[in-house]
Amino acid sequence: MISLAAGQSITFGRGAPGVPVGVRLADPGVSRVAGEITAAAGHWELTNLSPVATYVVENPEGGGEHIRVQPLRLCAPVPFELSRVLVPAGTGTVAFQVFAPEPPFLDRTCLGGAASGDRTLRAFPLDETAKYFLVLVAMSEPRLRGVSIGIPTAERVAARLRPIPGYRDLTARAVDFHVDYLARTKLRLRRRGHEDDGTPQGFAERREALVTFALRFGLVTEDHLGLLPPRGRC
Q: Are both 55 and 140 inside the same structural domain?
């Protein structure tokens, strides 16, 4: 493991005699000096030195969250604490990981408070003890675990949750009801196309939209997977 202090940089690539790199990616499809990583306060930066290849930085903990760094892009800021950098190569892609320091956060007590005026309402008031929330977690589970099997159907969601006390009689129709409630009332997704027509295709699109929205705004995280029963029991 290579440690960098804020302001320090390290290059990565295939390297060559007389062309040293800090992180060597031994693949003939990778440039000799493919890019550079720079440590900064609270984040890190990626410079893409390839004139043709786009690099992808994934957040392994973010349910598919990623950024793309275009060719010749300088100092692209990366906010992920744990990152996987994917570099196109002759064998597909090669990858390496970057561990960044824990990002700083403002102390909530420093914010103070208004002495008067209306209280700010929560944008997405989700009750983590409610059935609709567990339905949302079960739908999001494959993406949170990095499994590419698509969004579970209502039948699969119901089967996933039935081992939980109080969920034994959960049906696919009840799951669709919770999906509709989440889309219309809790997350207030815009209606488009088939999402509001009550057909199987419409509900499938709505489940996809809900999961994408919830993961994008961090409403469901890996920590919530502990609310689900152990896998293999359904």
A: no
